[in-house]
Amino acid sequence: ICARKMTVFLPAPFVSDAVAVGAGAMCGALCRHQIGKVAAEQIAKDPKRLSSLTGWHTAGINVLGSFLLGGIFASPIIAPADKMPTASSLSSSSSSIVPPRPSSFGLSPRSKLLLGVGFCGSFTTFSTFSVDVVNMIGKGDMTKALVYVMSNNVGGFAAAAAGMTA
């Protein structure tokens, strides 16, 4: 049996972007899991007093994630260190248009992928929110379901806007 070595060519930026998204997603999912676990443990300690809070950690996660994603989206994009203009290139420009100066605050495109697509994408979830709402409706908790939907949506929109202006 002759086995030929199969070479798959993936451009380096693609691989780096995929690793960034994957690493961010792993961290976001683990954070989400831990928050859910802690919430469930706290409710189990005092179910009589806290059982009405079941599922609300999802709303909190979605609002926090909206804030984070808003901030990530609004952050200026900074060039990687090897793409930054040098002092000599800035001063030798013969153009009357001043080239942009490197920002001291911002995120690289890959950092935005890691934090926005990866972390926030797995930290927040519409599917869990949807299941929570369906379960509330199934239990006849229409008022709770309506308040939950409104708090997720209004809270998420407000948090995203706050994150974009922070």
Could you list some keywords that capture this structure?
166 residues; mainly alpha; 69% helix; 0% strand
Low-confidence segments, given as residue ranges, are none
- The structure class reads mainly alpha
Oligomeric composition of the shown chains: single chain
Largest sheet: none
Helix content: 55-70%
Radius of gyration: 22 Å
One letter per element, helices H and strands E, the order comes to HHHHHHH
Give the N-to-C terminal Cα separation: 62 Å
> What's the tally of helices?
7
Question: Overall pLDDT, averaged?
Answer: 84
Strand content: under 5%
Shape category = globular
Number of strands: 0
Explain what you see.
The protein is mainly alpha-helical and 166 residues long. Helix content is 69%, strand content 0%. It has seven helices and no strands. It has helices at residues 12-45, 47-50, 56-74, 87-91, 109-123, 126-138, 142-165. α1 packs parallel to α5 (109-123). The model has no long low-confidence stretch (mean pLDDT 84).
Brief write-up:
This protein has 166 residues and is an all-alpha fold.
Question: What's the SSE blueprint?
Answer:
Elements: H1 12-45, H2 47-50, H3 56-74, H4 87-91, H5 109-123, H6 126-138, H7 142-165
Helix pairs in contact: 1-5, 3-5, 3-7, 6-7
